[in-house]
Design brief:
Helices cover 28% and strands 41% of the residues. The protein is α+β, with helices and mostly antiparallel strands.
């Protein structure tokens, strides 16, 4: 039985990549140990499944199709910059999404369905776009300054019209994402 590493995500529209690239370039000016996410891999994760049996893909897919019947395309507002777990202990640098009722409902309904087939429910859901992972504390204060500079940045409003079940193949150069199936809202 073969396994694949997979997750469910909303892909970032190409229109936003130049603006996000500008923000990433500000971080790249700092001599910090940050592994940046490839612009083509930017996404908002709805659910990380981890390693799953390929036979389970159909079951996950059926659950997604059941949930999205009740949803139509909706807009999300991409804004703000921050760090996980916090600005003093930076592991992940992210861009955020303004609180959105429809996005929260989509996540919660999907999470319920995935829990019914054996996946752990998400303890906390925070919609974000990971742009980089800090590998050491080198020049942390300069990184923190850039995060704070972009804390209230407005990236724009993006229409969410589909979600994608993705396969993630980890390589030394970084992950390679491949859409297994796209679901239109």
């Amino acid at each position: 039985m073969s396994q694949i590493r997979s997750f469910l995500a909303i892909d970032l529209d190409d229109d936003f990549k130049p603006k996000i690239n500008k923000i990433m370039k500000e971080f790249k000016k700092i001599d910090a140990n940050i592994k940046y996410v490839d612009l083509n891999n930017l996404h908002f994760t709805l659910k990380f499944f981890g390693d799953i049996d390929t036979e389970g893909i159909d079951l996950i897919s059926k659950k997604i199709e059941e949930v999205i019947k009740d949803f139509e395309p909706f807009d999300i507002k991409i804004n703000g910059c921050g760090a996980f777990p916090n600005n003093n202990h930076i592991k992940v640098i992210w861009l955020g999404v303004e609180s959105n009722k429809l996005l929260a409902q989509l996540h919660d309904k999907l999470d319920e369905e995935f829990a019914a087939i054996g996946f752990d429910k998400d303890k906390k859901f925070s919609t974000h776009l990971t742009i980089g992972r800090m590998k050491s504390a080198k020049n942390k204060n300069q990184v923190k300054d850039v995060i704070e500079k972009f804390e209230n940045i407005e990236i724009g409003t993006m229409n969410v019209s589909n979600i994608a079940l993705k396969k993630s193949t980890l390589k030394p150069s970084g992950p390679i994402y491949e859409n297994l199936k796209t679901y239109n809202l």
